[in-house]
Amino acid sequence: MSWNALGLSEVLTDLREGRVSAKELAETCLQRTEEFEPSVEAWAYLNPEHVLAQAAHCDSVRRKGYTLGPLHGIPIGVKDIFDTDDMPTEFGSKALAGRQPRSNATVVSKLRSAGAVIFGKTVTAEMANKTPGKTRNPHDPTRTPGGSSSGSAAAVASFMVPGAIGTQTAGSVIRPASFCGVHGFKPTYGSISRHGVLLQSHLLDQIGVFGRSLADCALLAQTIMGFDPEDAAMHVDFSVPDLVGVAASEPPVPPRFAFIKTPHWGEAEGATQEAMLELCEALGDRVTEVELPSSFNGFLEHFRNLMAADNAFAFEVICERSGDVISPALHEIVANGKEIKAVDYLRAIEVRDSLNALLDEAVFDDYDAVITPSTTGEAPVGLETTGDPIFCSLWNYLGVPSVNLPLMQGEAGLPLGVQLVGARRDDARLLRAACWLEQQLESEEP
Questions:
Q1: What is each CA distance from 402 to 62, 126, 185, 385, in whole angstroms?
Q2: pLDDT confidence of 236, banded at 50, 70, 90?
Q3: What is the structure's pLDDT at 1?
């Protein structure tokens, strides 16, 4: 059997019941990688011997009868902006080639404690920003896989690993998940520690996961969630929600969805608009089109001001030190960010808080989740950009949880995702509504 073709949750059952060993699973994932990496180029760092050594250790722990973690023996890809003490972390930049951290990011430590095999470091756009890395879309190598978590999405989509970790500051989880045709989940802001992760924007950076099912995403996210005093976004301790259990449970009543076009509906391709309208028609009275209050119309300016200023603060020094080694695009981003006025930056924070309160009142008091596009359309042809994050930006600005469901295809037959959005700290309810939606559509298929 090609164990690498199974989803995370499926192969975990086989591992626990002894039908496959961690080493056998790692070997099949390495064989798959050897076959498809030349065309996909998802990995910034991969050492097969180290992968097999980790897997052998997992098998040894199992034989000795020790308690096993929730991801024991599962190969996981980690975006190359998470510090790893046994692998380079280079942020997708030539300026940091050979950078070797002395300690692990909190997320990496949690993965190791859970028994995961850190398969390697996946390709990221330069500094998790605009300049793409080398990765190609597994469905069509002439197209972008999205970004900046390009390697993570592509590695899962091409069956090299069953799960991977990424980050999102504008649309870097949901967009590549849509373009590559996998599930992607970005929990509520402040749910997963960013300690030991490249800082791009303290107020916008969020950790996300990729998997082949909602169950996979729920398990992976739940495993790495948790309070960390090293992350300033986590002001108070909190209990990790039961994402796995709630997502798999039957809703007390069928969920209600708000179809929100957002102020940028006109930027969606015709095929995307048509597919979304057909989806809403299929859901019948479970979905209602809802128009956001006019206060949301100017969100993009505030989001961009916040992101630009934070980018300038994060990358000014390395741009000055590294000169031409840093891309012109990042130099421009820093220059533009330095022009943002303090009053506009503070206003962006204030508006974010007010829009969150308004969203709760206007939408989540009556609906379980928002339905909206994940992207403007299929993955664009060309590798010069990673695509437009416009349909992710609002939700990332607000820090609400979102998930990509690979439910549709575009005109070229490539994946086209549906984005579901939930209320802050209501991640489990969002995943349960998403599971219900997928099951509902599957039951209606001829």
A1: 35, 24, 6, 23
A2: confident
A3: 58
Cα–Cα distance for residue pair 384/214, rounded to 1 Å? 31
Q: Catalytic one among 23, 79, 121, 186? A: 79
Pairwise CA distance, residues 368 & 383, whole Å: 37
Annotated catalytic residue, options 172, 191, 193, 402:
172
Which of 424, 428, 421 is CA-nearest to residue 369? 421
3-state secondary structure of 316: helix
In the chain, how long is the greatest CA-to-CA distance? 62
Catalytic residue (one of 9, 21, 109, 148): 148
172 is catalytic: yes
Q: What is the DSSP string of 366-394?
A: T-SEEEEESSSSSPPBBSS-----HHHHH
288-332 confidence digits (pLDDT tens): 999 999 999 999 999 999 999 999 999 999 999 999 999 999 999
Q: Rounded distance, CA 427 to CA 423, Å?
A: 7
User: Length of the chain in residues, anyone?
Assistant: 446
User: How buried is 64 (Cβ within 10 angstroms: 0-12 exposed, 13-18 middle, 19+ buried)?
Assistant: exposed
In 3D space, the residue among 430, 431, 404, 435 whose CA is nearest the CA of residue 418 turns out to be: 404
If you average pLDDT over residues 65-89, what whole number do you get? Answer: 97
What is the residue whose two structure tokens read 């082949």? 212
148 flagged as catalytic: yes
The DSSP annotation for 79-93 comes to: ETTB--TTS---TT-
